[in-house]
Design goal:
The complex is a heterodimer of chains A (188) and B (717). Chain A has 188 residues and is mainly alpha-helical. Chain A contains six helices and four strands. Helices cover 62% and strands 3% of the residues of chain B. Chain B is built from 26 helices and four strands. The chains are: A mainly alpha (188), B mainly alpha (717). The interface between A and B is large, with 58 and 71 residues.
Chain lengths: 188, 717
């Protein structure tokens, strides 16, 4: 690239601008050829030589995740075991925080019901008023009613805690309660 | 020798038109930058939306991009092309009348854009938002420009075309092709239309256009300007003529293929994605050819970088060009795209291009041209130097903050814990994390504007110091005597440089090849559709809601494309299919996720959730940065036009039946009543059935719910 070798090309003069006859930089040519070779190999691999499609790659990745999830034991607690968990003040306190952050938007700050139903009265749509049923509804959601599943958004302990919090508010008298929905459960 | 005196001619260049375009550039730059800063602030703090529908991010973002590309860069290109082409052809422009029609026509288009975009009159296709009457104006003005330019070439006194002119030729031809093909649309009203393209077709055409707007509006014309002004200012020969030839043809041939790199992992067929990726990678060297030729032209005069602000701007521009054209191919690699796509990394990338490369080159050229054309001295070199350093700091703040934000958010989205669950399942968490960086970005933009204010002050002072009587530049031109002309027959490229028409045709063929190969196969969309997974067309009310979605520019912050990536599937549901967007004129896949993807938001939340969320998103998501859309509950939906809309959709191939064609408005009213009643029952106010919000809710609830058969890949059992 020494300037002494620069040669202006005869006859190339455009409004006073002239041009040198320098060769293409070798590294530049090599880079260009390299990317072209890469392009060919890459394209042939995926289009001709049966390289995996995006769909296949995704399927493998999702299967991997499913395997991990399936390997975790699903510990479903009984009604009595949940009774113990629900009595724990620490759980109720944690549940209150979770409730304020995630649930209050639809069920109201005082659980009185806004978009979603009232959670302090004796009327239940899906759970029959059982602790197991409540935990299940929080975890799995009710797609057709717009209740989202929380099992991917909350940890297992948080789901138990927030249900404990709801249970602890049983029978409280919030202002402006939403009208009852579902069946009256006398035992709740 | 004796007849030389007889051959001396006086040429009067048209400097007036150049000055006009320069002043327009300076004015519109202010608009583009200011609107850019405002929408940057809106992302940092939502109240900067001012609770006014005309000032929301969704309405103003298209104004910002259109102003930056077509008003700021566009006017600068026209100024530079008209100035340099006259001198390179040694002739006055073809027609003063055409020059002026071009100028005023273009300004009229920009004013029309500045009025219609905040009003929400938009086609919802990025950088092509302008509605059909303006699209026609753009076409006409571009033809005027082309006639004026090629007419000038035809009258040239220099036989050979200089490399700058090659780039101008490629620009004018390709932009015409891109604009026309991407804007084929059927009007439904004075300021509303549907594109003929749908789904993957529209995605491919749109990003063929969108990417090449970058290529042939922000790259090739600027390389042309660089080839004229850099050697001119430093008075050095261009480093390598051979490099010019190779990188020019490689660049225009390869660039046109690269569009699908905006669509990696989407439902676009794999072959198109693979082509987009490999052509983007091959683009690296041809792009750098321009940078090498620019920077090495400065050999021997590097000391000027220290003293001359113009040279500082040129070196800065070329360096940013080199960075951006390295980063572009990098981002096109699938695995890197899977992190960067939909994030602010892309925003940082394009701004180092427009602010660093285009902006700095324009400032450099203007600091050179203003004193020259107004026949005076630059008011202050010191101010120009300060402009450079403040502007550079601004771009760096902007770029670094956005790349950091993008990578941070991209990594948060994809984080999956050992139990197979998303680490950050709440989208809003990934937004609040990067808010501080939005403030840094706004600071960077502000610094760039401070530099711009110094620039304006300097230019105004310079022009004020100019002599009162201004006249066009006159040069004497002596045709080379016969004996001086090269007698040996020319060969190869040199011969081609003497044939403007053949050269232009070859350039056209170069850009046509990639365009045809990529777009042609998807013209028959049917062969990509699985007959067992076809979707239902939108109902009339959903269609009305969809038009509100496009009007408000929702696609600028929300994607509707669940990519074929595990984290996307875990977060949003099964990957989007080709069939799901088959009736989408235009497609609404989006390019940025400031908010979450909406492809499967339908039926996820109750109607009342959407109602409350649209009125004040913070009632639902406390840290949301989305604007309030209370006017949707006040404005009425236009039911009457639905029959027309449905009939246009039918014409475009959407299978609506006769009942729908005849009764679209009444069917929509019935559907609206049901939603309004549900809302009322849940506690919303009475009488919403004619309001826009009900139509929008109908549309949102349909997203992801239209497939007749569930998509094959499901995340959970």
């Amino acid at each position: 690239m020494s300037q002494d070798n620069d040669k202006e090309i005869k006859g190339h003069d455009y409004d006073g601008i002239t041009e040198y006859d320098n060769p293409l930089p070798v590294w530049w040519v090599a880079g260009f050829i390299g990317t072209v070779i890469f392009a060919f190999i890459y394209f042939l691999h995926y289009q001709i030589a049966d390289g995996p499609t995006l769909k296949q790659d995704l399927k493998v990745a999702l299967a991997e995740i499913e395997k991990v999830k399936a390997a975790q034991p699903a510990d479903i607690l009984s009604e009595d075991e949940l009774g113990v968990v629900f009595n724990d003040q620490k759980n109720i306190a944690l549940g209150g925080q979770v409730y304020a952050g995630k649930c209050a938007v639809c069920h109201g700050n005082d659980l009185q019901g806004v978009i979603g139903p009232n959670l302090v009265d004796q009327y239940w749509i899906h759970t029959k008023g059982t602790k197991v049923g409540m935990v299940h509804t929080v975890a799995e959601g009710v797609a057709e009613k717009g209740m989202p599943p929380w099992k991917d958004l909350l940890k297992g302990t948080e789901i138990l805690a927030v249900t404990a919090f709801i249970y602890s508010k049983k029978g409280s008298n919030p202002v402006n309660p939403k009208a009852p929905q579902g069946d009256k459960i006398e035992t709740y | 020798m004796e007849n030389r005196t007889a051959q001396i001619q006086n040429i009067t260049y048209d400097d007036g038109i150049v000055k006009k375009f320069m002043l327009a550039t300076i004015v519109w730059a202010g608009v583009a930058f200011t609107v850019g800063l405002l929408i940057a602030l809106q992302l940092a703090y939502w109240k900067f939306n001012f609770n006014l529908e005309w000032l929301t991010f969704g309405r103003l973002r298209p104004l910002h991009t259109n102003a930056a590309i077509f008003a700021f860069a566009g006017n600068a290109i026209f100024a530079g092309i008209y100035h340099s082409t006259q001198r390179l052809c040694k002739t006055r422009l073809f027609s003063d009348a055409l020059s002026n029609i071009h100028f005023w026509g273009w300004q009229l288009i920009i004013v029309a854009a500045a009025i219609t975009l905040p009003l929400g009159l938009s086609q919802a296709k990025e950088y092509a938002e302008l509605e059909w009457p303006i699209d026609i104006m753009i076409t006409l003005v571009w033809v005027v420009f082309a006639v004026n330019f090629f007419g000038t070439l035809a009258r040239r006194r220099e036989k050979h075309l200089y490399v700058a002119l090659w780039f101008y030729i490629a620009t004018i031809i390709t932009v015409a092709l891109l604009h026309i093909v991407n804007s084929i649309e059927i009007p439904v009203a004075f300021m509303q239309s549907y594109p003929v393209w749908a789904g993957i077709q529209d995605a491919l055409v749109q990003w063929w256009y969108g990417h090449n707007a970058v290529a042939f509006f922000l790259t090739t014309p600027f390389l042309g300007l660089m080839y004229y002004y850099v050697p001119k200012v430093v008075n050095r020969p261009v480093y390598s003529y051979r490099l010019s030839i190779i990188h020019f043809w490689a660049l225009i041939f390869i660039y046109i293929w690269a569009g699908p790199h905006h669509l990696l992992y989407t439902s676009l067929p794999d072959w198109a994605q693979n082509l987009g990726m490999v052509f983007s990678i091959m683009l690296w060297a041809p792009s750098w050819g321009g940078m090498i030729n620019g920077l090495l032209t400065l050999r021997g005069v590097w000391h000027l970088v220290r003293t001359e602000p113009i040279v500082k701007f040129f070196v800065g521009a070329l360096t940013f060009y080199g960075m951006v054209t390295f980063e572009g191919p990098l981002l096109s690699i699938k695995s890197i795209s899977s992190v960067g796509h939909y994030t602010d990394w892309i925003i940082g990338h394009v701004h180092s291009g427009t602010l660093g490369w285009n902006g700095f080159l324009i400032f450099g050229i203007f600091y050179y041209l203003v004193p020259k054309l107004w026949k005076t001295e630059l008011y202050s070199k010191k101010l120009a130097n300060q402009h450079f350093w403040i502007g550079l700091t601004g771009v760096l703040f902007y770029y670094i903050s956005m790349v950091t934000a993008g990578i941070t958010q991209g990594l948060m989205w994809r984080a999956i814990d050992p139990k197979g669950q998303l680490v950050y399942p709440d989208f809003i968490e990934t937004v609040t994390r990067i808010i501080p960086l939005y403030w840094v970005r706004a600071l960077g933009g502000s610094l760039y504007i401070v530099g711009y204010i110094l620039f304006v002050y300097n230019i105004v002072k310079t022009i004020k110091s100019a002599p009162a009587s201004q006249s066009d530049t006159v040069v004497e031109y002596a045709a080379p005597a016969k004996s001086e002309q090269i007698t040996s027959p020319e060969q190869g490229h040199r011969k081609l440089e003497g044939m403007a028409t053949v050269f232009s045709i070859l350039a056209f063929i170069a850009v046509l090849v990639g365009s045809l190969i990529e777009i042609y196969p998807t013209l028959s969309l049917q062969k990509y559709l699985n007959p067992e997974q076809m979707t239902e067309p939108y109902t009339a009310l959903q269609l009305a809601g969809r038009d509100i979605y496009t009007k408000e520019g929702c696609y600028l912050c929300h994607s509707q494309m669940i990519r074929q990536l595990p984290d996307d599937v875990l977060r949003y549901g099964p990957a989007s299919t080709i069939e799901e967007s088959m009736y989408d004129h235009p497609f609404q896949w989006g390019s940025k996720r400031t908010g979450p993807d909406l492809a499967r938001v339908g039926k996820k939340y109750p109607n009342l959730w959407h109602f409350r969320h649209m009125l004040n998103p913070r009632d639902i998501t406390p840290n949301s940065i989305m604007p309030n859309y209370y006017w949707l509950a006040e404005n009425n939906t236009d039911f009457f036009i639905l029959r027309k809309k449905v009939s246009v959709m039918k014409m475009l191939g959407v299978p609506y039946n006769d009942n729908m064609l005849a009764n679209a408005d009444r069917l929509a009213e019935d559907e609206a009543k049901i939603i309004a009643e549900d809302l009322e029952k849940q506690g919303a106010p009475k009488g919403l059935e004619r309001k826009e919000i009900v139509a929008l809710i109908a549309y949102l609830q349909s997203l992801g719910q239209k497939a007749k058969v569930a998509a094959p890949v499901a995340p959970q059992k």
